């Protein structure tokens, strides 16, 4: 029987290098859930280290929560890695909770009434009802593609309808892009902190994730080139306008360097544009800089509402057939009714009005957050939903999140966004748009500020 042999490329103590290699292998799917780690003596002989080194390494990995040792049987990779942080963020609502954990557009008093008007319009339109009950065909989707293309172009995101595929939203677009571009065991690069949906989808599609450092100008293109040299990847997923969770925007200089590198090394770019900022706050889309190798993912979730489950992806025409096949295999097509509602909403000018209101509301909420969290290391972006707060003093994100939850405020810890074995910074994401109104936001901010001012030292947990 062959055994899994880790590559110990790291300097420092051998047990630590081995523990990190195992953690990386688990995080990138090389060691899947349920897999048994090699017997300690065999691995020690293979690596030419002592059994004690392997025992210490296994104990470290167990402490990280990735494996469990079963007496007399061996050490096994646990199921559902990384799921805890995210499931806590999307946990059940409860009475009195101000939930700033989910990424939601600010509640507009007229949103539901507007939806009701489109439903009435459709219910009085026999052709629309006929389409809503029929399997959607390519020619009916052409109308929907055109509506999306017109609206995006008017928002400064010029697209050709022939390069669009209508999807069930951003999550669906990302999954389609990954399944069309990559095969199991291929590598997907992403910023070291990234959208949890892409981490989870990559895991499900058995892709190996490569974490790339980033700073306040976005992804570090020099580090990206070095990662590609060491572990070539087929695609890079990123959010150039508004990085989730940190709000960082990719600078124009880096966009150019990134596109040059993608062309030189021949990898794909998956550009997530789901967080839709005002035009004046956006840079040049990557799909315009490198149309031949970029898939742009868009959704109406952050404008019309997450329940709409509608969006589009823009891809080079050469990829369209592959993407269409993936979509058909998943669900044939997005529901015609939801696509029709989203399209009418965009074409009527109502979405623009909603968006203008949203940008104003976000600005007012950002003023409140800036005032409440002044003097702290906090980041926001014009038109964005989040405040990214790097915790002061000795605060630990996991403990703070727990304390805030007990006090009735839910926020997301950095841990929920970590790619692979990336160490989580002590930081939290506060979704300021998700509060039901400004009063609830003010109440939550007071609780956050009060909790931070208590500066509880870390608990003494072990000797
Ligand atoms: C960056 C990013 N991409 C994609 C999505 C998913 O979009 P959708 O709700 O349309 O599936 C989200 C949702 O929060 C997101 O934050």
UniProtKB/TrEMBL annotation:
Pfam families: Aminotran_1_2 (PF00155), GntR (PF00392). Keywords: DNA-binding, Pyridoxal phosphate, Transcription, Transcription regulation. One of its GO terms (molecular function) is DNA-binding transcription factor activity. The keyword Cell membrane does not apply. Residues 12-80 form the HTH gntR-type domain. InterPro entries: Aminotransferase_I/II_large (IPR004839), HTH_trans_reg/aminotransferase (IPR051446), PyrdxlP-dep_Trfase (IPR015424), PyrdxlP-dep_Trfase_major (IPR015421), PyrdxlP-dep_Trfase_small (IPR015422), Tscrpt_reg_HTH_GntR (IPR000524), WH-like_DNA-bd_sf (IPR036388), WH_DNA-bd_sf (IPR036390). In the C-terminal section; belongs to the class-I pyridoxal-phosphate-dependent aminotransferase family. This is HTH-type transcriptional regulator TauR.
């Amino acid at each position: 029987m062959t055994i899994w042999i880790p590559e110990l490329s790291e300097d420092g103590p051998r047990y630590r290098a081995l523990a990190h290699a195992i953690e990386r292998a688990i995080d990138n799917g090389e060691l899947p859930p349920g897999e048994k780690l090699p017997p300690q003596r065999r691995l020690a002989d293979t690596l030419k280290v002592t059994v004690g080194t392997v025992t210490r390494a296994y104990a470290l990995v167990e402490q990280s929560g990735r494996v469990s040792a079963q007496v007399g049987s061996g050490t096994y990779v646990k199921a559902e890695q990384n799921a805890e942080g995210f499931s806590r963020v999307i946990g059940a609502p409860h009475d009195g909770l101000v939930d700033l954990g989910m990424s939601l557009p600010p509640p507009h008093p007229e949103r539901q009434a507007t939806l009701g008007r489109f439903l009435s319009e459709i219910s009085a339109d026999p052709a629309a009802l006929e389409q809503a009950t029929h399997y959607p065909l390519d020619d009916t989707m052409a109308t929907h593609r055109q509506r999306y293309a017109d609206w995006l172009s008017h928002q400064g995101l010029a697209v050709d309808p022939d390069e669009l595929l209508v999807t069930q939203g951003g999550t669906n677009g990302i999954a389609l892009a990954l399944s069309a571009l990559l095969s199991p065991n291929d590598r997907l690069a992403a910023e070291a902190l990234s959208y949890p949906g892409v981490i989870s989808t990559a895991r499900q599609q058995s892709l190996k994730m490569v974490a790339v450092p980033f700073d306040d100008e976005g992804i570090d293109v020099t580090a990206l080139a070095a990662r590609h040299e060491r572990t070539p990847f087929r695609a890079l997923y990123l959010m150039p306008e508004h990085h989730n969770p940190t709000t960082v925007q990719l600078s124009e200089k880096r966009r150019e360097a990134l596109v040059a590198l993608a062309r030189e090394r021949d990898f794909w770019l998956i550009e997530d544009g789901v967080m839709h900022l005002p035009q004046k706050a956006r840079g040049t889309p990557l799909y315009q800089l490198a149309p031949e190798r970029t898939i742009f993912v868009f959704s109406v979730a952050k404008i019309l509402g997450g329940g709409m489950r509608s969006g589009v992806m823009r891809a080079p025409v050469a990829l369209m057939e592959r993407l269409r096949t993936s979509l058909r295999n998943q669900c044939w097509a997005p529901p015609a009714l939801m696509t029709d509602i989203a399209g009418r909403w965009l074409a009527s000018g109502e979405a623009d009005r909603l968006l203008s209101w949203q940008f104003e509301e976000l600005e007012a909420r950002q003023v409140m957050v800036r005032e409440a969290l002044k003097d702290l290391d906090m980041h926001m972006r014009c038109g964005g939903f989040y405040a990214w707060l790097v915790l002061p003093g000795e605060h630990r994100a996991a403990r703070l999140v727990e304390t805030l939850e007990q006090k009735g405020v839910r926020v997301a810890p950095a841990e929920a966004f970590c790619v692979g074995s990336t160490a989580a910074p002590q930081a939290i994401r506060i979704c300021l748009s998700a509060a039901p109104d400004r009063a609830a936001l003010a109440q939550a901010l007071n609780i956050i500020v009060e909790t931070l001012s208590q500066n509880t030292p870390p608990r003494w947990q072990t000797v």
